[in-house]
Design brief:
mainly beta; two-stranded antiparallel sheet
């Protein structure tokens, strides 16, 4: 059986939205990338990637054993299925004829034959 100390471990978790400290300033993780078997962390205010060793954040506590499901704080949200939107080109307006909405075509262009 596992001892209590072996059930949990601490590890930094870099995921989008995580607040980290880089060079004494708070930054937000944009995304991460595995490149050439190395982890690179991209920050929202910086174009270049940063190595994880340069970042400071509170480690996340992870478990090696299955945890019971926590009770939900809120009732599940009911999904409402809306009808598909009606295109404005197909909308029917009572008492209005389509021909009355159309503009009269412009007169044909007069072309002169080349000399």
């Amino acid at each position: 059986m596992f001892r209590a100390a072996e059930k949990f471990f601490h590890m930094p978790l870099y995921k989008p939205g995580t607040v980290v400290v880089w060079r004494a300033t708070k930054q937000i993780v944009s995304h991460i990338m595995l490149r050439r078997n190395e982890l690179w962390v991209y920050l929202t205010q910086r174009a270049e990637p940063v190595r994880p060793e340069e970042l400071q954040l509170k480690p996340t506590v992870l478990s090696t054993v299955r945890q019971p499901e926590r009770p939900r704080l809120h009732a599940p949200v009911k999904r409402v299925v809306l009808p598909p939107p009606v295109s404005s080109a197909v909308r029917v307006v009572p008492g209005v004829q389509l021909s009355s909405l159309m503009e009269t075509p412009p007169p044909p262009l007069e072309t002169t034959p080349p000399p």
